[in-house]
Request: fold
Amino acid sequence: MSETLTYEEYLSQHGNLTYTNVGKSMLPLLREGRDLFTLAPKDGRCRVGDVVLYRRPPTSWVLHRVVEVLPDGYMILGDNCVCREHVAEDDVVGVMVSFVRAGHKHSVDEPGYRAYMWALLVFERPRVLLKRALLAVRRRMSKVVRHVR
Reply:
């Protein structure tokens, strides 16, 4: 019978973990079921821009980006999300070091990825405001359509 390891145990024993994501929160960087990402164990404090795997109690695991470093943890935001989340230092277990998209492996140190990350961080506030506005319009349009029917 095979032993089931936690993410922390796997990273501790094997050094890296390559996995695929579920959901749309990291679009356009990671596409569900199509792209892979590789994590390394967290080594010290994370930096703004790092994509981290963290525990969302009680049993969920989430891969999102650090947008602010705090004394007791981090503010985290998915690339396709509108709400920041506070994450405690101890809940972060791994940091993305590379990803595979369309069969090509990319490092988080590549200039193209660094430019993408910089743009996300610089334009975080306008991007979030625009996305919230679009979601509000979508909700209102849904109500209008239901009312017309």
About this structure: The CA atoms of residues 54 and 92 lie 4 Å apart.
